């Protein structure tokens, strides 16, 4: 998973430059928040870390699907390579989600509450990042 995430980051850094897109000003904050979330759930145990992965990836997969729909419905958009990149990354994130489930994420105490809180935080972060 980690190797794929590094590839995703490198590719999105390249695309930011290619399309001259300004990344969110909150990127440093999101990096720290992501580390704290990952480390915090890891301290609760391997299954809690997997529950975190499941929660985050479920939101990311939906975000990728939303982005794909927007781009495919834009009559002025024609970059098929970008669509394929987003699809591939979405599919890889879905694999990460599924791996988390296979590794026992749902056996985490208070699984539903933990993942609901994490999902809410991720959705909120995406909405804020779209504005800032």
Automatic annotation (TrEMBL):
Entries under Pfam families matching the protein: COQ7
**Does the keyword Membrane belong to this entry?**
yes
- What would you give as a GO molecular function for this chain, any one? metal ion binding
| UniProt pathway annotation | Cofactor biosynthesis; ubiquinone biosynthesis
Q: Name one GO cellular component term.
A: nucleus
The alphabetized UniProt keywords are: Iron, Membrane, Metal-binding, Monooxygenase, Oxidoreductase, Transmembrane, Transmembrane helix, Ubiquinone biosynthesis
- Regions crossing the membrane: 21-44
Q: Which GO terms describe its biological process?
A: determination of adult lifespan; regulation of gene expression; regulation of reactive oxygen species metabolic process; ubiquinone biosynthetic process
Which PANTHER family does the record cross-reference, listed alphabetically? 5-DEMETHOXYUBIQUINONE HYDROXYLASE, MITOCHONDRIAL, COENZYME Q10 BIOSYNTHESIS PROTEIN 7
Q: What is this protein called?
A: Ubiquinone biosynthesis protein COQ7
Which species expresses this protein natively?
Answer: Anopheles maculatus
